[in-house]
Please model this.
Amino acid sequence: MAINLQKGQRETIGAPKFTIGLGWDTNSSSTGSAFDLDASVFIMGDNKKILADEFFVFYNNSKSPDGAVEHTGDNLTGAGEGDDEQIIVDLSKIDPRATEICIVVTIHDAESRRQNFGQVRNSFVRIFDSATNVDILKYELEEDFSIETAVEFGRIYKKDNNWKFEAVGVGMKGGLQDYLNKYN
Model:
């Protein structure tokens, strides 16, 4: 059974191959425009900076150069049950310089569409074993991000040769470019 985490909690992943599933529901009637949320991953070293541009994985760069992280595709609507976007991770392939994988979700064209995470509900990140499809952990965002247009859902980090997940749940008023500036 999956471990349900609270903000700030940490848990060892314990599986070398796993999938990160991200999900959300939106209230499109509040702005009149459809929501397009995008999951992105920053693979970083000890200095908290991405190893190289190619280690920023998102819908336009779907695979890291080491083959360890793969984005399965952009969901433009978030419709339906379960995961809206998934990222497959194989830690046995990860670049030896990598010590952290940051998971961020942003709202595409949030400013022009006048959208924010306050209009998004039932947001979650879960990690499940790719071989068995059994959930390892899940973190449901319960905060009301009324002005934020981007949220760092969580981070996977290496400590004492173990990979752990931390439930972060921190919003940012800004977009993907703000995270690129932060981690570049």
